[in-house]
């Protein structure tokens, strides 16, 4: 469409030169069409330049240099040789249960080469032209800890086989074009800072509109190309560990289930407390081992643990696990870019005391603050013990009273919302270091710059909790605090369910039902019976945060 006015102008000019279209009317038409063609071509050139220069989307990852994993690089290169395809140019880890190839030849995808503290100075040191390199192999970090070496090789075979089609000039050009369009659309949606932002946004909006039209028109063809590339890579990989790959795919599904459970049940409570577990990948192994112990369908999976794990291919598995764990907290919760006083790592051995116990006592304190705000101010002669933080106070407030639970749930929801908003504001203005600063020790910079000002979390784990769910969680926390303080219970960690209450060293998982009876129906008898069975004193004040 861009060259159509130019083609018409050429026809009119040639016809005029041959004396076929003469007269003042034809002269006016020739000049009008020629000016229109020049304007359209200039606009097309500007749009093309904007699409070429648009920054493509790059997945946030933890770079893994060859010196940090020489055995893993050797395994991948041997796999590429067996498949007869180019080896990936680099390897990176992602805190997810997936693996793929990613083109990072665009100048904006190159690591910051400068060493100064200023982001602008280091960004200027990036190459200005697209580099010629094979795609980067991105590996899900849970795979390295749960899978054995042979299983990892079998799972990576069809992924590595994709470097062959990636080297084809036509496929590479088509992918660059689609990624450029996607980047241009994203640039158009980004806010424009500075003065005259509305005027400066007009060219971006125009480029984004054109790129969106092109992207929608080629979406079906691009999807068909990718399906064909994946099918060709799968066929090529059938000659390498095909039988083992069928068995290894079962481990992929199991690892995904364990990773999702670990993040939502174990890591998320710690993140909300301002702590981030520093060994999430090691936790996957513990969670899946516990699953194999409980579930007969998973029986036998733990017997594989005697074989060599794939994380042995790394020189420092602990450092890689810590970096991937910090990135997971950044992506799935939106935590600060790097550790600090309000965002510190926690080890699994410290988790019960530093996360579970603090979580219970913080929620119990919030529950009593909301109760205080709902209770009228007592007379001066009133007994001070009436406002003591006891479990009896909570139970009596909720038992047999209509509408009290909803009112208390609304108060807790408002308090949680205020605290989360304050935490987000603190993270936005807090001393989290300069944007684009190096990542965790031993990991280097990140091409997506997840440590910078990009809006995170990218992938929230759970929808917002309802008021009833929040109230039930706070009542459970209050019961657990009372059990710890008066009945000799202890906080614990369940790898599949998160924070747990331990009575005589055994987990009690039967607390949810009596608490829900109290919260939803106002029936306190099931909870009172449960408390008597383990010897909890409801009249004793509990220790709060």
TrEMBL record:
Record's keyword terms, sorted: Membrane, Transmembrane, Transmembrane helix
Naturally occurring in which organism (per UniProt): Streptomyces gelaticus
Transmembrane regions listed in the UniProt entry: 29-52
Protein name per its UniProtKB record: Integral membrane protein
